[in-house]
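Hello,

Our lab assistant flagged a job as stuck in the queue for most of the afternoon. It eventually completed. Since we weren't sure the result was trustworthy after the delay, we are filing this so someone can double-check. Below is the sequence as submitted and the structure that was eventually returned. Let us know if re-running is recommended.
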Amino acid sequence: MRTYIKQSLYAVPLFVSVEFFSQQQVTGVVTDNSKTNINPVLIINITSQKSAVSDTSGKFNIEASENDEVRFVKEGYYRIDKKIKKEDFSSPLMISFERVEIEIPEVKIVYKPTGNLERDNKHLNESRKMVSLRSELDEYMKSPMNEAVPDNAISKTFKPDYNAGQVSILGVLDAAVGLFKKATELKITKANYKETQDFIQRIKNEIDLQFLKKYGMDEEQIDEFLIYANDTRMMAKKFRKNFKADVVEYELRAAFAEYRKTRKVSNI
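-- returned structure --
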């Protein structure tokens, strides 16, 4: 019986490796109803949690297996879900987006200095609301963690029942596969103050923020937005350990769409 259990456990990595090497490349082009290429489009393999972004021509490629569910996401368009079939590996996919009917019009407001220092300082200096926001964020980041620490005890499913005189083979295999998946996944935990500051700095170093600068935003305004994006979408918590530039940029653009609704920015 013990020999059979050992052989079964050795077979687990073999199953995992066969599943890994079954991944293939799926290619295609994303367009809108007028057959115009649109970009960037975020493509996510829901089954394997892998992601990609279409290029400037609307073309994309992503790893997938047969029967995987692949999702296409573009702000301002309806989401598309596609189940991968065998024939999808031999010919490119043609994905056509449909635009959402209601769109919020752009707000273009530019402050023009008057030459009166007292009046201009109210617009150019950091606002009281921003100072208060930074202070509250600093206090929040320095506060002690109040989340429960996970227990490192071995799962009861994996413990053999010696009183019964035998061990369930299926129970042992299920437990082994579960422990393997937990060991390879990154746990999402709350970011402390230093981790958050390092994450925001990494965004500024590795992400092209030109889409913010084209609205006339200076360095202070960009810092203000990055704090807003991190606070509303918990970006440091979710992405500091698994930093994917395309996913982080998409989250920033989604956050900016909400940010513009309540802030005065100009499209220049």
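-- support follow-up --
The delay was a queue issue, not a problem with the job. The result is valid. The radius of gyration is 25 Å. The beta strands are 24-32, 42-45, 50-53, 59-64, 69-73, 80-83, 93-97.
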